[in-house]
Amino acid sequence: MKTTYLHLLLFFLLASPVLQAQSKNPPVREIRGEVVDARTGKALVLATVSLRNTNISTVTNSEGEFLLKIPAGTTDGLVNFSFLGYADKSVVLGLLKPDKNVIKMDIAVTELAEVNVNAPRDAGALVRRALSKRDENYLNKPTVMTAFYRETIKKRRRNVSLSEAVATIYKAPYDTYKKDAVQLYKSRKSTDYSRLDTVALKLQGGPFNALYVDVMKYPQYLFSGGLIDNYAFRFTQSTRINDRLVYVIEFDQFPDIEDPYYNGKLFIDAEKEVLLSATYSLNIKGKEREAAQLFVRRKPNKVDVLPVNVSYRVDYREKEGRWYYGYSAVTLTFKVDWADRLFNSVYSLSAEMAITDWRDNLDGEVPKVKERIKKSIILGDEASGFSDPNFWGEYNIIEPEKSIESAIRKIQRQLRRASRNEKAEVPEVIIGRNDSGQ
Fold it and tell me: Signal peptide: which range, if any (predicted)?
């Protein structure tokens, strides 16, 4: 059976800049803070922060910090905080300061008796039912979504490239096989080519890298057809979210299957049997060469490019009894090994995207073909946006973590000195996604 793998569209090459659109920014009210465990003070990563009775939202970063922008005239309302395994928390808008808010969340207790009495016995059957209920559980109408996208490239632990963009996603209903369209609103990118000393590394696909992790919209990359028969499923400790019982199911490929498939966890609402979240990774150990064939399209003969880690995450949100794509992330680590060099280079690439607002697409509007970005897009170098502290205006973003803030400050210093790195002439290595299954 032909297998379709989900993996990043990666290219080690140069690209031309992406055209940026500009608009006048309306006034907004900004609310900053952090979300932590009430007992331990531990940061809660990727908690959802939203303004009740609207579709305005964001997520916390890897340090639990958030920035929420709402219309300046908004004075009444509640800000909701939700996180898997914790009780929801709502805070009156008037009690939130512009900065340094600390939101403490309590762990939700799951009654063992409740789980034992109601839990289904067959984990695999539950997964199949959840996948089959896509039409009834997820948005069944077209929507226009605003998204914030960020991609980073690190050489070992140092940032060498940072790209950010606001995009408009014309999301097709989940009960159709029509694909989503993406239009780029504005973006900025800077690459330190002096640190890319052996290859000019770039990531192809832009927002599509994250969008295709929406496994309920694009099931062909994980469980579609007979692929689900390659996995063993089992229940593990249940949890709660939004005061609802959530079954946690672990899955892994059967040990006698030689091709690299995935292992991970699925979080399924007990009542509605709807997939709320999924985290999974490609089984690479002992299969490095086979996994490399899924990614590497072209490379110099003296170079080995081997994936070390490939992992994914997707989270869904609920609105009036229907769920929709809210956040996803892709992380890829691989090493580049030159035959005539003593040491190899390790690169980590990440791409994440969060839906920050959306509305019903009542008129069925879609951008013209020439206005849509292609799956082969490479965000072009355009660093000038980093010099503008109000570059994003009213748009919500994922608050940058400290390492990204440091990278932005460095870019700003470079811009003030008007010193731009020259793009090095280096060998080309191409890594891409096998799209034969679509």
Answer: 1-21
Q: Provide CB contacts within 8 A for 189, sequence distance 6+.
A: 18, 161, 162, 163, 164, 379, 380, 381, 382, 383
| CA 103 remoteness from chain centre | 23
β-partners of residue 296 are 431
Which residues lie below 8 Å from residue 156, measured CB to CB, with a gap of 6+? 345, 346
Higher-scoring residue by pLDDT: 126, 220: 126
β-sheet bridge partners, residue 170: 144, 181
CA of 261: how far to CAs of 67, 132, 376, 382, in Å?
37, 21, 24, 37
Q: Are 143 and 324 in contact (CB under 8 A)?
A: yes
Cβ burial of 254 (10 Å; 0-12, 13-18, 19+) is exposed
pTM: 0.88
Give SS3 for 427.
Answer: coil
Please give the pLDDT value at position 112: 56
Domain limits of the chain? Answer: 9-431
Residue-level length of the chain? 438
Of 332, 83, 368, 47, give the one whose Cα is nearest residue 201.
Answer: 332
Query: Rounded to an integer, what distance in angstroms lies between the CA atom of residue 194 and that of residue 282?
Result: 31
Residue 356: phi and psi, rounded to 5, are: -110, -10
Q: % helix / strand / coil in the chain, to the nearest 5?
A: 15, 40, 45
Strand partners, 403: none
Token pair for residue 79?
């800000």
- Spatial distance between the Cα atoms of 85 and 236, rounded to a whole number of angstroms: 14
Closest by Cα among 9, 16, 12 to 381: 16
Q: pLDDT tens digits, residue range 93-131? A: 999 999 999 999 999 876 654 555 567 889 999 999 999
Residue 381 near residue 414, CB atoms below 8 Å: no
Q: How far is it, in rounded angstroms, from Cα 37 to Cα 34?
A: 10
The SS3 call for residue 393 is: coil
The helix or strand, by DSSP H or E, that contains position 406, with its residue range, turns out to be: helix 402-416
Q: CA 43 to CA 61: how far, in whole Å?
A: 9
Give the helix ranges, DSSP H, for 84-122: 112-118
**Do 47 and 58 contact (CB within 8 A), yes or no?**
no
Encode pLDDT of 44-58 as tens digits. 999 999 999 999 999
